[in-house]
Amino acid sequence: MNHRTSLWPCSxxxxxAACGETAPPPPExxxxxxxxxxxxxxxxxxxxxxxxxxxxxxxSPEQYRVLRQKGTERxxxxxxxxxxxxxxxxxxxxxxxxxxxxxxxxxxxGWPAFYAAKAEDRVKLLVDRTHGMIRTEVLCARCxxxxxxxxxxxxxxxxxxxxxxxxxxxxxxxAKK
Length: 177
Ligand SMILES: [Zn+2]
Known about the structure:
Helix content is about 15%, strand content about 25%. It has about 180 residues and is α+β, with helices and mostly antiparallel strands. It has one domain: Peptide methionine sulfoxide reductase (Metal Binding Protein, Guanine Nucleotide Exchange Factor, Chain A), CATH 2.170.150.20. The strands form 2 sheets. The chain has a 6-stranded antiparallel beta sheet. Zinc ion (ZN) binds near residues 93, 94, 140, 142 and 145.
């Protein structure tokens, strides 16, 4: 345990987010949903809005818990935590490209960390006042899927920011060789 002492505040901080969270339904009105079996890849600029039932069918239970119910995967368990191959990271919900390996770094926090999104408009930031803290939640701008939180605690990166993102919210595509 001693070797992780320095990581404790970070892990504890984010682990709190996993506790007792509820899932408010998306407030926006839903356009006519397309049938679940016919979900083509949307162009990157088209807003994606699905019914809760659609998401449940499309996503794995863990993806649904994180992306749609604002859950948090357990630290040091995610597929992309210590993963540094060249390529792009898309939203596991809608396929929008959100991050690239160019801005990924090892924060030691137990989740994948990026110092910037692929483009500012790919993600949406919201103030999150749950659990007695004020944090900045990061969502996919296209489907409003919960990705994680962003912190200003990475002074050694070009932006000073740490986008702390759940692996399960992402899908990696390797760069073409
Ligand atoms: Zn998305």
